[in-house]
């Protein structure tokens, strides 16, 4: 693995995958700008790494000015910005009929528009360097979305995946790479009461959605198969190679569900190919 001192900008760095990634980066001698909503939440990593490696930043990711100050401070401190990791986000549970407009919009604000805010500020520096790598942390639900009761969260992660594909097409000529990461269930506090948002309203008829919520909270929480420290190393590995993947699946569950989705799409495509092609104008 390449351990030359690159500069990483990691959002959502105070817990979960973000915290594991920052610790791994510092242990490998990288420079890290770590963001969170409060500086105090970053205290646990203040003593990690060597002096001068870590720049803890209090950032409101929904505020463009706050993001700009953070990115500018990173470049001022380290001289460049090599890898951006859009990791911050949260899960919103609730059926599409039951969720309020405010609940859905807030989920998109943090999971989609906040990464766009960061991209707008980071890309000019990468463009001037003619180098850089954007890594957007989605979820396997951003590729295989068949989960009752998770429509808002699924939609935000599909949006982030599509955004990454477009970004890769736009920035390839500038030497900037892009990767979307699709982790399966990772053993973090994602399903804790402080991280997971539940819709204020529920509708009793949607029994599958309630069963999915119960499964996640009662059976999956604390038992997720994914190891955040190993996932952090996978992300670092992908950032260190000359040709990183555009799509990076993480964990057995993610790989299985991705293959299942591709098989389903292929079956639909084959079954309806003739009818689909017949919708074109006659040659």
TrEMBL record:
Oxidoreductase in keyword set: yes
Keyword Phosphoprotein carried by entry: no
Alphabetical UniProt keywords: Oxidoreductase
Limits of the Ketoreductase domain: 6-189
A Pfam family: adh_short
Protein family (similarity comment): Belongs to the short-chain dehydrogenases/reductases (SDR) family.
Record-given protein name: SDR family NAD(P)-dependent oxidoreductase
Source species: Herbaspirillum lusitanum
